[in-house]
Amino acid sequence: MKHFWVFLFISTVFFTNTFAQKPEKLSSAELFHEIQKLNFLGTALYVAAHPDDENTNLISYLSNHKKARTVYLSLTRGDGGQNLIGPELRELLGVLRTQELLAARNVDGGEQWFTRANDFGYSKHPNETLKIWDKEKVLADVVWAIRNIKPDVIINRFDHRTPGSTHGHHTSSAVLSMEAFDLANNPEVYPEQLKWTTTWQPKRSFYNTSWWQYGSQEKFAEADKSGMLKLDVGTYYPEFGLSNNEIAAMARSQHLCQGFGRLTDRGISAIYIELIKGEMPTNNDVFDGINTTWSRVKGGDAVGDILYKVEERFDFQNPSKHIPELVRAYELLQQVEDIHWRTLKSKQLKKIILATAGIYLEASSESGSTTPGSKAVIHIEAINRTLPNVTLKQIDIVGVDAKLLPNKTLGTNQKENFDIGFTVPENTSYTSPYWLNEPGTLGTYMVKDQKLIGKSETPSGFKAMFSLVIDDVEITFEKDVIYRYSKPDKGELYEPFAVLPEVTSKIDEKVLIFATMDTKEVQVKIRAGKNDVNGSVVLDHPAGWTIVPTSIPFSIAQKGEEISVKFNVTPPNIESEGKIAPKITVGNKVYVKELVEIDYDHIPKQSVLLPSEAKVVRMNIQKSGEHVAYIMGAGDKVPESLEQIGYQVHMVDPNTIQNGSLDKYDAVVIGIRAYNVIETLKFKQPILFDYVKKGGTMIVQYNTAGRWSNQFDNIAPYNMTLSRDRVTDENAEVKILAPKNSLVNFPNPISEADFDGWVQERGLYFPSQWSKEFTPILSMKDEGETEKQGSLIIAPYGEGHYIYTGLSFFRELPVGVSGAYKLFANMLSVGKDNVKKNSNVKG
Ligand SMILES: [Zn+2]
């Protein structure tokens, strides 16, 4: 797994908590900032659709300058994107991006929320988005977020008034935010939520506008801004030694899997927010007219009297002298009836009390994981580094029957260590992202427990509750049980403490294509979650498939060790597809999960449990030709897929292409976006075209329009104009325009049915114009648009054929879409029908 070292350059103490799971350790200046935040009773909610949509400048400004509680509600977790740093895609990418958002919030001081909406891929219009998402569910989640967070102001990243001008998810986030603004206070709307929360009416709502909405910076400069606030997000924070925009850039740089690592910035910088609901502030303050002092809470004045004084007279050299006041404020806060503010402010105040007293509490497990039924030991460290007298009364481990009653005085700077041993209950839940526990739909995750909805991650299964008596008041502090260890080349490390199954399994290849009846050997990896695991594994399979042997016994001595066993899988003689799934029996228990670990330096290690399975597809696929040259572009898995149906794929470095060097291949395939990313290719085009002229087949997959077209006009041997035309509905009807063309006949007859079961989209960046030599083969369109005929076009050139296709083969082949395989085999077989050579190429 790749690691990035960006964080080594961030030396500021304020950001130490950026490191995965590392406990926060606040300096006096940071502590003072926390007290200022404690004394600000206002909340802002920022709403957008994806990880990276959020304006970190604004979030940091609200959190660090206004000192407001600032929450980013990202409707999705970003499952649909690309990953620049590792192999995680789809739901695993969503897990990685969730953690990157949390890392960003650790830097800019915000909090992170989500809905159940799934990032299912590009969407042109909010109508499509809201249909796929299940609008009612996602709207309910936005209302739920507002009712729980209780924001005074909401700021939308996107404009609800301009559907179709940006990603449908974007507009939808604003549309839902606007609707939820009006619904959250109505007890008749989603009344079931009111079992756990209360209604809430935000005061105003803004749209975080920007110049690109106006076409150009010049036009924006001239625009009427009377309905907008202008915020200086370049403000400098002496307590951190950083400018707001520096913090924002550091936060944004957490989105490493999206390639957002960037330089920091300083200096005056303006952001405009346009009022869309509520009263216009008169003083350029988003919280204008909103009581953000302790007096907004019944019983809060008495708490405020103490805490404002602490802030006013804060002693940076000896903060611990404020402990008696802070503890008194804590006592008074416990009498406040308003549960929302009491909970929120108690949590902040407890963190401040610990930091002010220099008290460090830690509960660290012996290893990174355990299994239900196993024995576990937790090492406790407790130290008070400033106060004369603190008593550690009791330590409880929540969720297990384990407690200690030390009732011991923690003398100044005298470290106390204890061990707590217990048996992990058999019914303990496994550690895994809660939204992936049950299969969801294309548009939404399945989450059965309402209380989990919105949470960024699964709450830790084990928490240590430390009961301390400080200045005669008993306060209980909560710490997640973590795993602390060190590596010689990395230093001190922290990881979540995970509960995992005692055995997990994995088939590396997630899709196995059987183009013939030949048997394939399938390797199943089995990993032990504890010592001495003995059992047997069978492979569940679709009817008609044969698995030999039926069952394989195994034995693993060491926790963490992995062994592999092999099954012979033989498909039936007819077309068939389904899943093979390892089922492991140990004693009287059956295990069916795969463990995926996501481990990067910028996020806490993630353990994800998914169904252990692989898709098997038996397709009656014919092919001609044998040797395929592949020129990789931006990266795709098409070569592995072609090998699965029996082609010999030769990866060709474009630098090595010379006159005649390609002649031995039956076809040359260009990987996705190759002309966008490989400079050399444009110089090799004459050689590639010469290869086609002599009888070869050249297949070019999608390239993005715009960038290459300016610098490069010979992507095809004839005129062809790439456009941004795309068909995003993977179920869009496909019409065959050239039914006699060999691409839809030889060697596999293609019908409309071969376009069933496609995923994510039909294709993208189709040519919109082409010269008369080309024949368009297919026609398709998204709802409400005109027919697009450029998804697959072919032209004879000399003795050979040139094919350009924007169809998303790079998505369809790796997931085993049978029709996509047949169409690709036909492209590779073009001109190899000796009897009818060339006669059918023109439709
Ligand atoms: Zn986005």
Mean pLDDT: 93
How helical, in percent, are the residues? 10-25%
The global form is globular
Structural class: alpha+beta
Rg (CA only) = 30 Å
Give start-end ranges of low-pLDDT stretches. Answer: 1-20, 835-843
What's the arrangement of strands in the largest beta sheet?
3-2-1-4-5-9-6
Structure description:
With 843 residues, the chain is an alpha+beta fold. It is built from 17 helices and 44 strands. The strands form 12 sheets. Strands 3-2-1-4-5-9-6 form a 7-stranded mixed beta sheet, with helices on both faces. Strands 35-34-36-37-44-43-41 form a 7-stranded mixed beta sheet, with helices on both faces. Helix 3 (90-108) links the parallel strand 2 and strand 3 (111-114). The protein is globular. Zinc ion is lined by residues 49-50, 53, 167, 170. Zinc ion binds at residues 49-50, 53, 167, 170.
From the structure above, extract its key features.
seven-stranded mixed β-sheet, binds zinc ion, 843 residues, alpha+beta, globular
Briefly, what is this?
By secondary structure, the chain is of the alpha+beta class.
Topology:
Elements: H1 28-38, E1 43-48, H2 56-65, E2 69-74, H3 90-108, E3 111-114, H4 126-133, H5 135-149, E4 153-156, H6 168-183, E5 204-207, H7 217-222, E6 228-232, E7 236-237, E8 242-243, H8 244-252, E9 270-277, H9 300-312, H10 323-333, H11 339-357, E10 359-365, E11 369-370, E12 375-384, E13 390-398, E14 402-404, E15 408-410, E16 416-423, E17 463-470, E18 473-480, E19 482-487, E20 491-496, E21 498-499, E22 503-506, E23 511-514, E24 520-528, E25 533-540, E26 546-548, E27 551-556, E28 562-570, E29 576-586, E30 589-591, E31 593-598, E32 606-611, E33 614-618, E34 627-631, H12 638-644, E35 648-651, E36 667-670, H13 674-677, H14 681-693, E37 697-700, H15 707-711, E38 720-727, E39 734-736, E40 763-770, E41 775-776, E42 778-780, E43 792-797, E44 800-805, H16 809-812, H17 818-829
Parallel strand pairs: 1-2, 1-4, 2-3, 4-5, 11-21, 23-33, 34-35, 34-36, 36-37, 37-44
Antiparallel strand pairs: 5-9, 6-9, 7-8, 10-12, 12-16, 13-14, 13-15, 13-17, 17-18, 19-20, 22-24, 24-28, 25-27, 25-29, 26-28, 29-30, 29-33, 31-32, 38-40, 39-42, 41-43, 43-44
Helix pairs in contact: 1-11, 2-8, 3-8, 4-5, 4-6, 5-6, 9-10, 10-11
The chain binds zinc ion.
Zinc ion binds at residues 49-50, 53, 167, 170.
